Amino acid sequence: MYAIGDLYDEDFRIFHPGANLCGIKEQFMETNQGPVDRIVRSVVGATLLAIVAFSLEGPVALVEGAIALVIGAVGAVTLLTGLIGWCPTYALLGISTCSDRHAAH
Q1: pLDDT of 23 strictly over 50
Q2: Is the Cβ–Cβ distance between 52 and 68 less than 8 Å?
Q3: Which of 9, 54, 88, 104 has its CA 20 to 30 A from that of 37?
Q4: How far apart, in whole angstroms, are the C-alpha atoms of residue 22 and residue 77?
Q5: Res 84: pLDDT
Q6: Closest to 82 measured CA to CA, from 43, 28, 25, 47
Q7: Same domain, 25 and 76
Q8: pTM of the entire structure?
Q9: Could you tell me if 75 and 54 lie in one domain?
Q10: Is the separation of the CB atoms in 32 and 58 below 8 Å?
């Protein structure tokens, strides 16, 4: 088995092929959203998905075609990031809306 330090080569910034990836989530997917951020994302994501769902099946089409696909994709990603508490964009930019007592270590 490999330790987490063995999986990632700091000099070349690559993963070693064939390495055991167990434990990688703890290093790269640490919670970076606070409770308010997670609630807002979940509500907005669910609302966007509901708009698309009702437009496709309901009598009034609020959105159609490619716009419905885009809104559905944004809603799904927003809902998912709100539910899991980790945002890849926040991770890339080094942003965290967690307070110290809510951060997962």
Answers
A1: no
A2: yes
A3: 54
A4: 24
A5: 94
A6: 43
A7: no
A8: 0.64
A9: yes
A10: no
